[in-house]
Amino acid sequence: MRKSALSSMAMVLLAAGFLLGATRVFALEDQKMVGTITWIKIAPDEKSAYTTLKSIRGDKEVTLYVTNELVIDKFKNRKLDVGVEVRAKFEVRDAKNHCTYLRKVAGE
Q1: H runs (alpha helix) in the chain
Q2: For the segment 24-57, what is each residue's pLDDT rounded down to a tens digit?
Q3: Residue 50 counted as domain residue
Q4: Which end of the chain has the least Cβ crowding within 10 Å, N or C?
Q5: Beta carbons of 54 and 61 less than 8 angstroms apart
Q6: Which of 51, 58, 107, 57 has the alpha carbon at shortest distance from 81?
Q7: Residues 52-62 as b or e (16 or more Cβ within 10 Å = b)
Q8: What is the reported pLDDT for 45?
Q9: Cut 0.90: pTM above it
């Protein structure tokens, strides 16, 4: 009887661990947004930047943390500047929206 109770408890703990792990994996899914750049701040070391996008639907504003060197170069060269419409993908990690993709919308 005691062995059965321990194995049941182990199965419950295993199932709980799986559910918590699966929830964490699904939470890291990329979120997508199309919006207009409203603010850009490049770090003094020029290795990271923050930018704020306002959704084209106008319903939300998101601040993105950018570490991609090519995107930061586009910020410095003003190819991506305030007022430009962009398509972005980001994931929430460490209480920040880490940008994984940022490109101008086609036709601009």
Answers
A1: 2-27, 69-76
A2: 445 557 899 999 999 999 999 999 999 999 999 8
A3: yes
A4: N
A5: yes
A6: 51
A7: bbbeeeeeeeb
A8: 96
A9: no
